[in-house]
Amino acid sequence: MPKENCYISDVDLSDNKLGVEGAKAFSAMLLENTIVVFLQLSGNEFDNHAAKYLVDAITANSKVEILDLSYNMFGDKAGEILGTAIAENIGLKEFKINRNHFHSQGAAALAKGLAANIFLKVLDVSYNGFGNSGAAALGEALKANTVLEELNVSSNRILVEGALHIAAGLKENKTLKRLNMTRNPVQSEGCHGVLKALQANSGTGIEILDLPDIPVNKELVELCGAVKILFPNNLPRYGRNVKLQSQLKAELRTQPKVVGNSQN
Fold this sequence. Notes:
Elements: E1 10-12, H1 19-31, E2 38-40, H2 48-60, E3 66-68, H3 76-88, E4 94-96, H4 104-116, E5 122-124, H5 131-144, E6 150-152, H6 160-170, E7 178-180, H7 187-200, E8 208-210, H8 218-226, H9 242-251, E9 257-259
Parallel strand pairs: 1-2, 2-3, 3-4, 4-5, 5-6, 6-7, 7-8, 8-9
Helix pairs in contact: 1-2, 2-3, 3-4, 4-5, 5-6, 6-7, 7-8
């Protein structure tokens, strides 16, 4: 009897230090790929030069649905190249490119790619250096994108100004369900802007909002109550009034929810 064909849907080549030559060889394979759905290429020392080879494969390939390029060495030039690939790709549903070296220029390019993509549902760009300008580009992308459901921008040096740009995007976005903004120094003013945006957007899809660990003032606490947001695990600090924290936790019972992840 003839042997049945074997199909490999998941490929994990993480932490192999493939470098530029590895990216070149692997891209050639991806151009002809019809079977790989999940591709793990994290920790392979891919840099801006490697991105030049990967971009053709990402643009042309419509079979890969989950692509992990985290823990590499991509910089702003790679961000520009990959941003174009994201815009044109019609297969990716989840894209992880966290822990690289994208800053304002590369971040803006990635965000523009996100705005044009109509298939991507999960994007992780955490632990980069987006800053306020990158956050501004993400805010504009959120206004235009109608598909993305999860976005992780934690640890990206986003300040108050950047948080307000993201808030402007949230005010118009209807599809995003989860947003992680932890480990960004957005202060109470930035958090306030994000919550006000959700309050103004009656059609928001947000279910889980991860905000940074910050001292919470009375105005912010009242705003949380106004938008009916629940802190289920670690209630953010409101001075040292533990009694008020307990009362607040008992009163706020409905979704969406904010996870504070406080270690204080």
